[in-house]
Amino acid sequence: MSSTATSVAQRHMDIAEVKLSYPLLDVVERAGVSLKRSGSNRFQGQCPFHEDRTPSFFVYVDRQRFVCYGCKQWGDVLDFVQLHEHLASVGEACAWLVGTPVPPQRKPTKTLSKASQRERRWDRLTLEEQLVMNVAGALYRDALSRNRAALAYLHERAVPDWVVRACGLGYADGRSLEAHLRKHGGLRIAEELGLLRRPEPGEGGRPLRERFAGRVVIPEIRGGQPIWFIGRRPGDPGRVKYLTPPGDKPVLGFERAIGRRRVYLIEGAVDWLTAVGWRLAAFSTCGTDFPMDRLGWLARAEIVFGVLDADKAGREASERLGATFGARWRPIALPDGCDLNDLGRRPDGRALFFQLVATAQRESQ
């Protein structure tokens, strides 16, 4: 390798080391920018590069990038230093950073993300937040009634029309919610709730995007009002199937199961719709990572049937839940590679499921 090539390689290695040693969030805060958490891996504040009455400056911790949606400045930690200190090059920015104290090590981003998810409790919404949730639920329901593809997807998954109505299912068309709130008010609250989001760097387009755009939306309804949503993307196997807003993940179907002696713990949200169609006292944890300390409301349940996917994650979750519920736990052994909705789409699915329930009861005696 020539001396020139060696020098270039060394310079790139040094820049990478500097970026690693000086996290963007620390550098921005040290520059006097006051930031507040705005999502699991995002912080928001007033932009230091232009007169910013409404905070439009964001730091994305997971990607180590900043962006201002007002003046359109964006980049990494060295770009920020170059702009803030009026330096001529990235090299000067690197030298400037090296001459400053190394910030103390923060907790890992993953820990910050988990902490932020505990900040919002969806069962404790303010009046203004609940009004926005109600508007969103109504607009989603209206959009579903007009979207043939979304309705066809639900029919394909064998979800009866009465379940669609009873569970308040909807569809996010990607424009109705933002347009309605822009006209009638509530944009800021919707963004704080995670129903609307700012576009990612390079996305362009509208200043606010619907989080659930292009997804069937399943609400958690308490007292007749939606307090939380989970979005399911039809098709697109390469994309993320389920999407939820930031904050604690509540139980889906809480009011259908609380106070019942025999309850059914369902893993997936669409599987839960199948259970509702079979009129079971069912609730869903919407995944296998639900915190066990949030299940105290099941203390009076005499039997908890576990309906988890027949895969490794489902089996491991069943063992954890068995340790929590003890003798009350009745895991349902679904066929390999099968979930409850798969059974729901089979002509003999319901009969087979209740045979499995009877088997689980006999084996526990």
Please explain how this structure is put together:
The protein is of the alpha+beta class and 365 residues long. Helices cover 41% and strands 15% of the residues. The protein is built from 15 helices and 15 strands. It has helices spanning 3-21, 24-30, 77-84, 90-98, 109-117, 127-146, 148-156, 161-166, 176-184, 187-193, 254-257, 269-277, 312-325, 340-344, 349-364, and strands spanning 35-37, 42-45, 57-60, 65-68, 74-75, 170-171, 196-197, 209-210, 216-222, 225-232, 242-243, 262-266, 282-284, 303-307, 329-331. It has a 5-stranded antiparallel sheet, covered by helices on one side. The longest helix has 20 residues, at 127-146. The chain is elongated and about 75 Å long. The protein starts with a helix and ends with a helix. Mean pLDDT is 85; it is low at 1-13 and 108-118.
Q: Any descriptors?
A:
15% strand; five-stranded antiparallel sheet; single chain; four-stranded antiparallel sheet; alpha+beta; 365 residues; 15 helices
